[in-house]
Amino acid sequence: MNQFVACLKKDFLEAIRTKRLWYIIGISIGMVVLLAMSMVIINMANLESLTGQGDAALDEMLSIFNNSYLSSMAMFGSFMGTYFLLVSVILFGMIIPKEIKNKQWVNPISAGIKPQYLIASKLIISVASVLFALIIGCLLHLIFTLSYCNPDGSSVGVLFYGYAMNIIYILFLIICTVSISAIAKRTWVPWVIVIACMIFLPDVLNSITVGGYGLSAYTPFLFGSEAMVPQMGAFSSMVWVIASLVTVAITVGLVVWAILSNKLSNKLFQ
After folding, report:
1. Which residues, at least 6 apart from 4, have a Cβ–Cβ distance to it below 8 Å?
2. Which is more confident, 63 or 23?
3. Which residue among 26, 202, 233, 241 is buried most deeply as judged by most CB within 10 Å?
4. Distance (Å, rounded) from C-alpha 34 to C-alpha 88?
């Protein structure tokens, strides 16, 4: 246990020394600033007077930037779930393969520290760093939304619901990224797999319908979000529970595989 705590302290200090923690916090803050600037500029331009003139693309854009809680939350989820997540995947997907390639694990393993401790420590610190950055981003976004946007029939609970779904979604993919990088020992493997999931998985899930709802509505990331819009059929809570358990099982399975795989591959670190 003392060895594992030492690994955690070392990785935490490493995240600060390499400025990796500050980078990810800066990106989170930058996304909120970008969102705020976009909404303020479009609101100042008074483009709402142009709606209803037959330009579908403009009408759709203005419906997104309509200065409401839901609009602000949708933009926040889009920015964080795309740009912030993409940078996080690239940043944290290279840590373990890079350290193994540079033989930075030779001395710790020679001193008796188990590779499993090194993997688990990297995973925990990576997830904690992203979570901390997300919390800061959510707090800043909450302050901006409550100060500048209009409820428009929505409550503050919609914002907290959106934050929870975004955090779960992003942390899930970060866990997958670090776990796959530990399993594959290659930087490009988690990048390709996770980014492909970001691009193609939503379309695949939405192409499969259950009770009139896309399968994505039954994942932990979008629970009930599609139920806000009238659709055919009834939302099945049982299907959501099953899909959520499968998602959790995948996450836990990848973590266990990443940690146990290093029992069979100690030669890679020597």
Report:
1. 117, 120, 121
2. 23
3. 202
4. 18
CA dist., res. 196 & res. 201, Å (int): 7
Using left for φ > 0, alpha for ψ between -120 and 50, and beta otherwise, residue 232 falls in beta
Tokens describing residue 140: 């800043």
Identify the burial level of 56 via C-beta atoms within 10 angstroms of its C-beta, where 0-12 means exposed, 13-18 middle and 19 or more buried: exposed
In one-letter notation, the amino acid at residue 42 is I
Alpha-carbon span 8 to 78, nearest angstrom: 32
Reported as a single tens digit per residue, the pLDDT across 91-113 is: 999 999 998 888 888 888 888 88
Please give the structure tokens belonging to residue 49. 């007077």
Digit-coded pLDDT (tens) for 41-92: 877 766 555 555 555 666 666 666 678 888 888 889 889 988 999 999 999 9
E strand segments, the chain = 209-210, 213-214
Q: What pLDDT digit, counting tens, does each position of 124-156 carry?
A: 999 999 999 999 999 999 999 999 988 877 788
Residue 123's nearest CA partner among 15, 23, 235 is 15
**Domain limits of the chain?**
2-265
Angle at 218 between CA 215 and CA 224, to 5 degrees: 115
Instruction: Please state, in angstroms and rounded to a whole number, the distance separating the CA atoms of residues 117 and 123.
Output: 10
Alpha-carbon distance of 9 to 250, in angstroms, equals 28
Listed range (103-107, 179-183, 214-218) with the worst mean pLDDT: 214-218
| C-beta neighbour count of 74 within 10 angstroms | 16
Higher pLDDT, 136 or 267: 136
Tell which residue, 38, 63, 68, 28, has the closest CA to residue 48: 63
